[in-house]
Design a protein that fits this description.
485 residues; alpha/beta; TIM Barrel; six-stranded parallel β-sheet; 18 helices; 19 strands; binds zinc ion
Length: 485
Amino acid sequence: MSNKRGLFPILLRLLLSAAAIAALPGCSLLGGDGASKVAGSEAASAKPQVVRYDGEPSKELPFVYTGRRELALTFNGLADDKTLRALLDELDKYGIKATFFVPGMRAAEEPDLVKEIVSRGHEIENNTLSRLDMTKLNYEQIYNEIHLDNEIIERETGVRPSYVRTKSGDYNDDVRLVAAQEGMKAVVRSSFFLHNWNGQSEREKLLYIRKHTTRGGILTVDTEELDDVASVIPLFAEAAKEVGYRFVLLDELVRHGSERKPLEQIEGYDAIRMNADYGNAKYDLIYNKPNAGKKIALTFDDWGTDYTITKILDILDKYRVKATFFLRANGVEANPNLARAILDDGDEVANHTYSHPVVTTLSPERLQEDILRAYRVITEAIQERPTMLFRPPTGKIDETTAKVIAAMGYDKIAQYDVDSSDYLRDHTAKQITDDVLSQAHDGSIVLMHMLDDTHTEEALPAVIEGLERKGYKLVTVTELIGEKN
Ligand SMILES: [Zn+2]
């Protein structure tokens, strides 16, 4: 159905019908928590007075906490019939189920389209009635925007929305209170919002989407804002396929996810701390393990996209090898699920600073602040105490700096004695493999990286096979040095 009626009369009609519904005693449409908070509903007033909810605000969802290889593709707005049907056909073609945040006004104008979305197996959620800027509305206006959208979508589809997201994704505490008042599960944001292209090539578009294809991600496109919205679906499909992730409905993603404990509730969260008294701190600089026999530890430094790190994890899995990952925590902060995925795979997760400074260039206090921040970010991301090893960026360290680090609780500073030089973009897979195999000996620690656009992943199978051919067993640093951290 496509009609030319203006929006304002529809809004009026909706408000009046909502008031009429509210005036009916015991009306099931306003049942539940919401009804008790709509004062005056029994008094048959022309318009119900909304009372501010005094319970807990609803949850916020910028992404879903999970290490699973899943994410959600979501849409805002409801484009015209032709655009929307082309989008639905494209989603069907790639077997993607998506979540549509639909404004109530558009759902009321296009009930057939909304029913079509549901009949094709997608999910409909609340994009507010008319997509106003919620931060400029009072509580009652916000209530009406969210409540009436729920009413219309339930009327047209038979299912009441569980999630609400505003047009821009911005909201204030009142939006969270109204969502709770409406009995909804969460106020949703986006881990990635694709607005519009700016002359990129198809390849550049794919790389951009790939960069944001993260575990537990909530990827968003506005169907009314993005030109030719159907044309991006093959890019999303290809990016997910390349990294081996699957699009699921938002509610499924949430059900598979878990709650994150606040940092202070994680055992060992304070095992690393600021300590100005470092003069006599004892440290152990570990370059390799003498007398280790035929054992070698592979280590991966820094950070990368899901695409790169998942590939490394898959290769390690294929060869049943466990490794030690030294994480740059400002990357972890932006994508904590990927750090958890490394841990879930059975590998070790350790500290490589927050901002990757050369540690000898910082004052003791600034250095400790950076390392402490990294420890907290990593601990919160993986929800447990990380492996108690620290590695300085670039390997540069001196005696004073080593003491400053040891005084915090990192008495084991994990260096390396085999440098693969794989961080150099023009270092080929063959060169990386040769560098490792020519330097490796009993008890070596091998430095590699998890950086994008290098040849690490290409070299890794040959590195593992070459070392195993020489009779080496590949172990974590903890196992190599023979101590449980
Ligand atoms: Zn590094």
